[in-house]
Amino acid sequence: MPGPEGDRLLYVNMTDQTTSYEPFPDEWKLLGGRGLSAKILTKECDPTCDPLGPDNVLVMAPGVLGGTTAPTSGRISFGGKSPLTNGIKEANAGGNPGQHLMKLGIRAVIVKGKPAGADKRYGLRIDEGEVSIVSADDYKGMWNYPLCEKLLANEAKTASVISIGPAGELGLSGSSVACTDGDKERRPARHAARGGLGAVMGSKGIKWVLVDPGKARARQAADTKAWNALNKTYSKDYLDGPQMMKNGTSSVVPVANMLNTFPYKNRTEGQSPDFETLDGAKINATFEERGGGMHNCMTGCIVKCSNIVHDKDGNYKTSALEFETLTLLGASCAIKTFDEVADLDRLCDELGLDTIEAGAAIAIWMYSGGMEWGDSAAAIKVLEEVAEGTERGQMIGNGAVATGKALGHKRVPHGRGQAIPAWDPRPLKATGVTYAAGPMGADHTAGLIVNPGMPAEQWAQASQEVQLVNMVCDSSGFCQFLGPNLDDIRKYYSGLYGIEVSREEIADQGWDCMQDEWNFNAAAGWKDEDNGLSECLVEEGIGPDHSLKFDVSLDIINQSKVRFPAREELFVGKASG
């Protein structure tokens, strides 16, 4: 099967339902995932386009190391112009589709155009590299879990699926793209959630993508002996280390609560009185009695941060129930228990909704008096209305800012139209700089720094450095929880291609791709003088004396866009900051 020298781009034109392969440019050899998506969108997409119109471009790009035997390296990026931020957006997910595409030498799927019939649904099949667009009208309106069960019923065990739920079909700005995970059940539980890219996929008329690599082999490195030695050493170092994510992101709850970044009641407080019943330790304690446990979301993952959550009767409910979801659908809505949040998480996965955006929208409605704080039954009911297309279902499905506008409610915590993640920018100022000036808007995966005591003079540089490392990580296909640094990634690239990738080259690549994204956003209408976060985060404090505010000047925020000299820490730090 194709190796690095035989890679290609798959173009899909939904206006006339045609497909074609183009050779993969050699100058992009070291680009995948987010970085490749940025290059393609810069070249192929008009930044001023309507995000849900025919001129937007949807990119599905695995990382450079996808399909190889590098550990935990199969993540896939989805890119396009966001209906939430009105700028460039990338969201990535685990599962197996990214690995499968790369085994077939497909470095990116580039979807253009829009079908004439708004009611038509299509499926894109990639069978061992053979591509076809088929009718998917009988999947119209289906939720993600039954969709994948039906679609995969008669498919090979090697197949994986990318899909959207009703939220994406309805063009709702809070919608996500689902990928099936690496378990034999192939559940659509891995979501590229942020930025509304499920709506972009829905606007193209695509309900699902099925990828079957057949008997395609893993991608081979130029120097197999050196590659295997690198894999062995790198995996051993990780497994012999602290493995911070071995209990999943839900285990972060007590620490986040202590740091005043476990927001309560629409971020009016930084701590929740219910943190103990939302703590991931409570989830893990149920494994022996209920079943479930920790697992790897994609083949070849050694982190295994994903928890499988069962209900009290021992039946599968959801995976993974993560910190962000426990915060936004739990604490921020004053919902008290992880079991209640698990129900909401499963429903969001079924509908294809970002749990951060949905949770923030529901909290705004609760704050404005639309429903009682902590009423999980009412939250379930309104989420079910998303699939029904009711007025309030569409309001919640379109996210926090849309909900605030519809209710005439001004207290909406966001950055560039995107709901603030769990990690609050008031105690974590450098993270707030990422939200305020980064090309992804309010997205913790773009550059999270959990250091509440950091001095002000370090905020801009810390934000820039972790953004750069995360850009390269999200381009490589590695999971951020593996903690790769720039030296790790360049060594893997060198081993894969049999070349020497220097520190300067890998750092320049990350910076250039960030520049691509900033330039796209500038052309789309973003202005540096508008970089910042919503007033409630600037004016209202949290913490014991309510003194923690996002009191960061615009000068410091915008310093993060001016390149700092490369420090040693840039190459030996961790991707997650």
What is the total domain count?
3
Distance between the termini: 37 Å
Based on CA atoms alone, the radius of gyration comes out at 22 Å
Strand content: 5-15%
Which architecture of the largest domain per CATH? Answer: 4-Layer Sandwich
Cα shape: globular
Q: How many E strands?
A: 17
- Strand order, sheet with most strands: 2-1-6-3-4-5
Explain briefly what this protein structure is.
Helices cover 37% and strands 14% of the residues.
Can you offer a commentary on this structure?
This protein is an alpha+beta fold. The protein has three domains: 4-212, Aldehyde ferredoxin oxidoreductase, N-terminal domain (Aldehyde Ferredoxin Oxidoreductase,  A, domain 1, 4-Layer Sandwich), CATH 3.60.9.10; 249-419, Aldehyde Ferredoxin Oxidoreductase Protein, subunit A, domain 2 (Orthogonal Bundle), CATH 1.10.569; 429-572, Aldehyde Ferredoxin Oxidoreductase Protein, subunit A, domain 3 (Orthogonal Bundle), CATH 1.10.599. The protein contains 23 helices and 17 strands. The strands form four sheets. The chain has a six-stranded mixed beta sheet. α17 packs across α18 (459-476). It is globular. The mean pLDDT is 96.
Topology record:
Layout: E1 8-13, E2 18-23, H1 33-44, E3 58-62, E4 76-81, E5 88-93, H2 97-103, E6 106-112, E7 122-127, E8 130-135, H3 144-152, E9 160-163, H4 166-169, E10 177-179, E11 190-192, H5 197-203, E12 206-212, H6 224-239, H7 253-258, H8 275-278, H9 280-285, H10 287-290, E13 293-295, E14 306-310, E15 316-319, H11 323-330, H12 338-351, H13 355-367, H14 376-388, H15 391-397, H16 400-407, E16 414-415, E17 418-419, H17 429-437, H18 459-476, H19 486-497, H20 503-524, H21 535-539, H22 554-559, H23 569-572
Parallel strand pairs: 1-6, 7-12
Antiparallel strand pairs: 1-2, 3-4, 3-6, 4-5, 7-8, 9-10, 9-12, 10-11, 13-14, 14-15, 16-17
